[in-house]
Design a protein that fits this description.
181 residues; alpha/beta; TIM Barrel; 7 helices; globular
């Protein structure tokens, strides 16, 4: 048993059950209630489109627990981009981001409150570059924060910041995650 537990801990993304947390709403509710009982009041859940974002479940959990849950708008790494996403212009991608924040995500009226987590590969693909430019345009218009998941290369965060700055983003409202890699 310990051998299996060790493997799961070391290979968490290779164990299918670890990738289906959206089926664990009761466990999520318990964790949120524990979080609230210990002084927590809000959290950011930055799963984006096409990687099992479920804004309706997040809304239900927020209502049932009293914890504010802020959902992320946007697109993750190129491997999760649909052919439609890859074909979109920067302007079209900007519109998608703006609509998810101003009008609702995933066919609901539930509005996202942050852009991200915007993910990228190394090197950046053309689709990811367009998503970063759209992120900057939407953020400049809305003033909302952005969360970035850089590619696995030491130059990736700097490249992303340059693209965001050139496209008009407010870098003071940008979080660069996973810099420990």
């Amino acid at each position: 048993m310990m051998k299996i537990l060790y493997w799961i801990q070391k290979n968490s993304y290779s164990h299918k059950e670890n990738l289906q947390l959206n089926q664990e709403t009761e466990a999520m509710k318990e964790e949120l209630l524990y979080f609230k009982a210990n002084g927590g009041g809000a959290l950011v859940e930055n799963t984006t489109t096409r990687i099992s974002r479920d804004v309706q479940t997040l809304k239900t959990l927020a209502e049932e627990t009293g914890v504010h849950i802020i959902s992320g708008a946007g697109f993750y790494v190129n491997a999760t981009h649909s052919s439609e996403t890859r074909a979109m212009s920067v302007e079209q991608l900007t519109d998608v981001l703006m609509n998810e924040i101003l009008h609702g995500a995933d066919g609901t009226s539930i509005e996202c409150g942050i852009i991200g987590e915007i993910g990228c590969s190394w090197p950046l693909t053309e689709s990811e570059r367009k998503v970063f430019q759209a992120t900057a345009h939407a953020q400049a218009q809305l003033g909302c924060p952005v969360i970035i998941h850089p590619g696995r290369h030491s130059k990736a965060p700097f490249q992303i910041i340059r693209i965001l700055q050139e496209a008009g983003a407010d870098i003071s409202k940008t979080v660069m995650s996973h810099l420990d890699k």
